[in-house]
Fold this sequence. Notes:
Blueprint: H1 5-15, H2 19-33, H3 37-49, H4 53-67, H5 70-75, H6 83-99, H7 103-109, H8 115-128, H9 134-137
Amino acid sequence: MFKKKEFKGIYEYIKNNQKSKAQNNLKLFREKYSLDPDYLYLMAEFLILEKRFYQAIDTIHVSLLVENDDEFLLKNNFNKSSREIINKKFKLLSELFKIIDIPELYEEVKNLNNPNDQNIFFQKMQKLMPGISFNKLK
């Protein structure tokens, strides 16, 4: 699932609700990986533990922005997320839209496993959330 072994450990801490260990490890790798798409996915998962749902949505959005910028990935020696993690990102978005009670987005994204459909939804997100621009992050 994760290409970096350090991310596997953080994921386990998050899934086991070990907030302190997850947070410490996220901090440890923040400088090196802050815009790595997998790191951002882990950060979104952590933000959900903290009940910071809107920030988690923003973080997944940024992760998808990075994911779709091949030049930035190459320049920073980051890899695209695995198909499994990309699917998890969209599943997480679905859960978040349900939590914050946006049923129309929840319904639209809950079964997106096809890369083409995910890309269409991602483009829609770009229009819905114009305040988040990857150009600001480069």
